[in-house]
Amino acid sequence: MTDWTQASIAKLKSRESLIGIVGLGYVGLPLMLRYNAIGFRVLGIDIDTDKVAKLNAGESYIEHISGQHIAKARASGFEATTDFRRVSECDALILCVPTPLNKYREPDMSFVIDTTDALKPYLRAGQVVSLESTTYPGTTEEELLPRVQQSGLVVGENIFLVYSPEREDPGNPNFETRTIPKVVGGHTSACLEVGVALYEQAIDKMVPVSSTKVAEMTKLLENIHRAVNIGLVNEMKIVADRMGIDIFEVVDAAATKPFGFTAYYPGPGLGGHCIPIDPFYLTWKAREYGLHTRFIELSGEINKAMPEYVVGKLVDGLNEKGKSLKGSRVLVLGIAYKKNVDDMRESPSVEIMELIEAKGAVVAYSDPHVPVFPKMREHHFELTSEVLSAENLATFDAVVLATDHDKFDYELIKSSVGLIVDSRGKYRAPAEHIVKA
Q1: Catalytic residue among 90, 96, 191, 274
Q2: I need a labelling partner for 348 at 20 to 30 A (CA). Which of 73, 185, 233, 389 fits?
């Protein structure tokens, strides 16, 4: 063990290290709060000047993270900055930046590469750099390693490189940053030791693995497992519907088996920053090895087709009432990608809205977590959330339940609307004006 390794571990264990969180979104912000809460000094680094200004004013921009927590962190030493020169002050740098897909469904590594390039001039001996962004196996070695060593630093000797995938589940009250086990892979054994020392202060259980590639593949397997199983149950939904069977009743019944079955429920498609995107990172990388990931690609096709399936059910429901979709007023309930959060990333609800509008209907939405339709890179609606009163609901020809937030008054909706297209299985009892989708 080098002197640098011992010194880094000792500083982390004594909680004297300054932790730098690069990227202050749904992953970076909870991590910042956790390190701050246990007595570390934390510096947040982000290129978004609005985010930095809000955080320094003690305000939150994520619904499930309260402004009180941010204000408390500020009062106890947390600071946010857009100045990458301050990287040199940090003893640990944790990268929590986006890894989206481009229009060809290929990995867009620009955020990771640009961030690493921005850090590069200010890296110094004694630091540990950890990437948390979901990515393809080999990213840490291929993209971060040469950049970190470009100035003459040697990874494993005087600077340490690890990959530790984020496992946040926004809005899930059963888990928090501290209680979700942390997978950590290091480029060398010394890197792993320092990486474990970094995270074991803040997380209850460590899961060390033999390399950064194993850690990268672990994260992909977790998300591919969900994507494939959701694709399976979405396909089963279509078959069950054709046979006149309620797929939600089937899944509930199957879930009573105490072994060998995990319940996955169908929906209007996949959303969020992980499940719709991450499987394609492995698909893309597998091509380099001459392999085709058929399960992944098939599940992707099925899940991608779900918004059109829901709109097809809407067309059928209106048709039964002697109406066309063109010219109808349609309200989409819930535009966040999952219940009880304000996260809009990759939300299938937005695609449903676009499909409805493209077919000539007037589309509106209601979401208690998203009062104003946000600015998005690929989607544009000048809309605000509709009030759910009996009078207002009665002005719509149909309602599409896309995200089943707990704050919705489902009985009011049921009694006030002539047609409900339910993509979440919220209404189990059959009713003439409810179409299962």
Answers
A1: 274
A2: 389
- Asked if residues 156 and 4 have their Cβ atoms less than 8 Å apart, the reply is no
Reported as half-sphere exposure (CB side, CA atoms, 13 A), residue 15 has a value of 12
Q: What is the pLDDT of residues 123-174, one digit of tens each?
A: 999 999 999 999 999 999 999 999 999 999 999 999 999 999 999 877 778 8
- 178: domain range? 3-210
232/356 same-domain check: no
- How far apart (Å, rounded) are the C-alpha atoms in residues 25 and 32? 10
List, in order, residues 6 or more apart from 285 with CB less than 8 Å away: 136, 137, 138
Same domain for 297 and 149? no
- Is 191 in the active site? no
Secondary structure of residue 393 in the 3-state scheme: helix
Beta strand pairing status for 420-422 and 362-366? unpaired
State residue 46's pLDDT score: 97
Q: Are residues 48 and 155 in the same domain?
A: yes
Q: How far apart are CA 227 and CA 278, in angstroms?
A: 9
Is residue 296 helix, strand or coil? helix
